[in-house]
Amino acid sequence: MEPILGALVSRKEQVTDLLRAYVAQMPSGERLPSEPELARRLGVSRGTLREAVSALEAGGLLLRRHGIGTFVVKRRAEVQSGLERLRGIPNIIRSDGRTPGVSNQSVTRIQVPGSVGEHLRLPEGAEAILVTQTYLADRIPVVHALTYIPPMRELGEVFAYLEQACRRPEPIVLFDVLEAQFGQPVRYAVADVAAVGATAPMSTALHVEEGCPLLLLEETHYTADDVPVLHSLDYLRSDAFRMFVIRERKAPLAAPRPKDRMRASTVVSQASRTVVAGESTSVDTPAGAMEGETQHGT
Q: Which top-level group of life is the source organism from (predicted)?
C-alpha cells in the first residue's frame, strides 16, 4: 500500500502545480470554471482537483464561497529584472523573492545550427554542447532556455561535467560553471530581444497554449578577451517574466557663457592669420578693437 500512497501524493503535487500555473494566468477576482469543466480542461480527476484547490486555498491563492464558486484572490506579480546585469536566470528568480527550480534539464552533443555557429565563430558542422532547461519560479515554469557551448579544452570533459550536474535537482547556472570549473568567466553579452509565438515543445515546457506570445532573449556571451563562450536563447513567458531596461539621457554640454565667448573671440582675433600663395602673414587687428574686446571680457 505504501507505494500506491506515494504515487497518489506525487500525482497530487503534479496537479497542484498544474492548477497553480493555470491560476497564474487569471486576473485577481475571476471565478474558476466549474469543477467538472476545470477537471476536463486540466485532464485530471475531480477528486485530485479538489485536493489541489484546497492546497492553493491554504496558500492564499484561491477563495471558495459555498454555493457561489472559487475565486482567484491573489495573483503573484511577474518576476522582474533589468537587462543591465548578467546574473543567470536562477539568480534573477531568487533575487525577486521566489524559489528557483528546474525541469527538463538535459545536455547533448550536437552539430551547431548555422546561425549559432556564426555567433560562436565555429565552422559549419562543428560540434558543440546544447544545454536545455526549463526554469521554475515557485514551481511555475517561466523560462525555457537553450544554451550552446563551443569546444573549450576537451569537449568531452565539459560534457561529462554538465551531464553529471544535470542529474542534480537544482538548476545549473552556466556562468558559475564556466568560471569556477573551466576558467572562462563571462564579462559581457550582446543581446537581441524579440516577440515570438510558442511552438509545440515550448508550450509543453511552459504550460501555455501553442502560439502564445513569448519574449525571446537571444544573447552571445563573451570573456574579457572577446571570446564567445555561450550562445543562449531564453524564451520567457510574457505573463510571468518581465524584463526592463534603465535608460539614461546624457547631460547636454553646457553652453558657453557670454563672458567665455568674448574671451574666446579675443584669443582668435589675436591669433588670426591668412595664407596667401603658400605664405602665412599676420592679419593686423586694430589695437583699439582688441583692447575694447579685452575690456568687455574682463
A: Bacteria
Residue 278 domain-assigned?
A: no
Is residue 90's pLDDT more than 80? yes
In a domain, 16, yes or no: yes
Are 181 and 207 members of one domain?
yes
Measure Cα distances from 102 to 87, 171, 173, 180, 297 in Å. Answer: 16, 5, 11, 21, 71
Enter the C-alpha cell of residue 117: 555557429
Structural contact between residues 246 and 238, judged by C-beta atoms closer than 8 angstroms: no
Statement to judge: residues 100 and 226 lie in one domain: yes
Quote the pLDDT of residue 96.
Answer: 74
CATH number reported for the structural domain that contains residue 135 in this entry: 3.40.1410.10
- pLDDT above 90 covers a percentage of the chain that reads 43
Pick from 22, 40, 72: which residue ends a domain? 72
Cell of 281: 602673414
User: How far is it, in rounded angstroms, from Cα 206 to Cα 184?
Assistant: 31
In this predicted structure, the answer to whether residue 26 has a pLDDT above a threshold of 90 is no
